[in-house]
Amino acid sequence: MEDLSKTIKGKRVELLHNTHPEDLTELLLSLRKVERDFLTTEVIHNPLLLPDIQHAMERIARAREKWERVMIFWDYDVDGISSTAALFLFLRDELGMDVSYRLPHRVHDGYGIKSYHMDEIAKTGTKLIITVDCGTKDREPIEHAHTLWMDVIVTDHHSCPDVLPNCIALVNPRRNDSLYPFPALSGSGVVWKVIHALSDFFFLEKTDSILQKYVDIVSLGTVADCMPMQDENRTIVRRGILQSQQSHHPFFQTFSGALNRPILTEEDIGFFVWPLLNAGGRITTPHQSLSTLLASSLDSFSRIQELIAVNEIRKGKSRDAYEKALEMIDSSSSILTYIDPDLEHGILGLVAAKITELYHKPSAIFTLHDGYFVGSLRAPPGIDLVQILEKSRDHLARFGWHAWAAGCSIAESDIDSALVSLRNSTHELYSGHDSIPTITVDTLLDPSYIDLHTLRDIEILRPFGMWFSAPLFLLSGISAPIVSLGQSGEHIRWDYPGKLEILWFRFGEYQERLTGKTVSLIWTLKAHTWRDVITPQFHVMDVICDD
Ligand SMILES: [Mn+2]
After folding, report:
1. Model pLDDT for residues 282-323, shown as the tens digit of each residue
2. CB 472 within 8 A of CB 442
3. CA 239, CA 217: separation in Å to the nearest integer?
4. What global pTM score does this model have?
5. CATH code at 335-430
6. Partners of 169 in the beta sheet?
7. How far is the CA of 190 from the centre of ligand 1 (A)?
8. Domain boundaries, the chain
9. pLDDT in the model for residue 238
10. Helices 78-89 and 286-294, packing angle to 10 deg
11. What is the CATH code of the structural domain delimited by 47-246?
């Protein structure tokens, strides 16, 4: 076996099986440590095992009985959007309740509930607030709601602090005292279980069809939040994709037509639905995304068209910002920083993610807003941004979030010292840290082995995601001629014998480097559908230059 040390994208390669497999499906299942029945077993747990679910049901039933106004409070990412849409439609259409929604503004409010939101909501005559995909950490505003005579039910999936908020119900499978068998639901997954419990409570005989009716919306949150594709999440996404093809919701009925492509796999959600719904939150308002998901059959098509236009703006702005950032950053620095006061707040994270992916280093991209430099940070695996920010906390006005994705704001006058401090903190904590990512390849496999039969064998393993990854294969030592594709040569095709479609999308820039070279290809398999004819397509993910 040749030296597989590094790919053209700078990744280390780990090859799990280095001969041609006898039974491909068996091999892929055993490498993922699951039995064959994993593929077909439906998992739907008892919703009454969720903490506080009984209190939540009773309080919602009381609100319904008394015609109380209910407000859903949500967070602006796609999990929050899908959680809100599912719960809103269920409470309004199945239970006939008076329900509305409120969300924080990405720039003006930041993340989470604030006490002033509670003041605003109280003025609408709301008696019950239900949070989705947020709330677990928001103790003070929840206390504040009580002083305004409003009750709060928190439904969430974020990890829990030591002291929990004092509310009517905190429905979160990550609670320490939770008996729920699967803690890794998305926010929308938790909402689906609340719908499950309420359906049992109110309709008993209709629960199955109700769960089915909302699972397409719910699955969007599970995919968008990259939840592990096992247990109940696998059931939600499998069912959700099938349901989306016969959906009750106009969004799914018109989506395929508007985008000219069907939603057939979890990757279609990840590539097409997710960025579209996300674009509203990043460029205009998340309300636009939510109202598109909730639109009636009359205006669903035009709303999706509008969102497509917004997404094109988002793409253009992030591409421009990324190119400018690439020119400006000092790639030898411990943390790669870039400031542009004119950058749109909503694209900072997208640019940071691309910079970090390219350099395998933490990055921070800033814009200026109201006298503060607001930044979005990303880090490769093994580097903890919260630690870096902690160490520089004296220079920061605000910071938070996760190890791999974080945000901070810095007073305009502190920016120089803050950047120096961030660089020093990163250097002190992580100098010498090996952050070269590993790409794990399942097995050696020649694409000519794949026919429609083997294609189907792999397709039935879906949905893929975290924990149950899409298979990657290695085709070693090929020297087939390469052809550039696309209007400006943005794609590459290898002219492999047997007319196999071996394609590398969006990496046309490597064409020159690869011409005439012997290479090994890391590839994955896609079912390509065109006019009802299915053919296997071989998508290259990375390349190893053998010479
Ligand atoms: Mn979430």
Report:
1. 888 889 999 999 999 999 999 999 999 999 999 999 999 999
2. yes
3. 11
4. 0.92
5. 3.10.310.30
6. 153
7. 10
8. 12-39+437-545, 47-246, 249-315, 335-430
9. 96
10. 40
11. 3.90.1640.30
Distance of alpha carbon 71 from alpha carbon 77, whole angstroms: 18
Peptide bond into 286 cis (omega under 30): no
Question: What is the 3-class SS of 226-247, one letter each residue?
Answer: CCCCCHHHHHHHHHHHHHHCCC
Calculate how far, in angstroms, residue 126's C-alpha sits from the geometric centre of ligand 1.
24
| pLDDT level of residue 108 (50, 70, 90 thresholds) | low
Q: What is the pLDDT of residues 411-468, one digit of tens each?
A: 999 999 999 999 999 999 999 888 788 999 999 998 888 889 999 999 999 999 999 9
**Cα of 154 from ligand 1 centre, angstroms:** 13
DSSP 8-state secondary structure symbol assigned to residue 6: B
Q: How far is the centre of ligand 1, averaged over its atoms, from the C-alpha of 361 (Å)?
A: 25
CA–centroid distance, 60 to ligand 1, in Å, is: 22
Burial of 490 (0-12, 13-18, 19+ CB in 10 A): middle
Cis-peptide, bond into residue 173, ω within 30° of zero: no
Mark residue 364 as left, alpha or beta (left: phi above 0; alpha: psi -120 to 50; beta: remaining): beta
Question: Tokens for 335?
Answer: 């943390």
- How far is ligand 1, taken at its centre, from the CA of residue 85, in Å? 14
- Specify the CATH architecture of the domain 12-39+437-545: Beta Barrel (2.40)
Name the DSSP letter for residue 106: T
CA of 270 to the centre of ligand 1 (A): 15
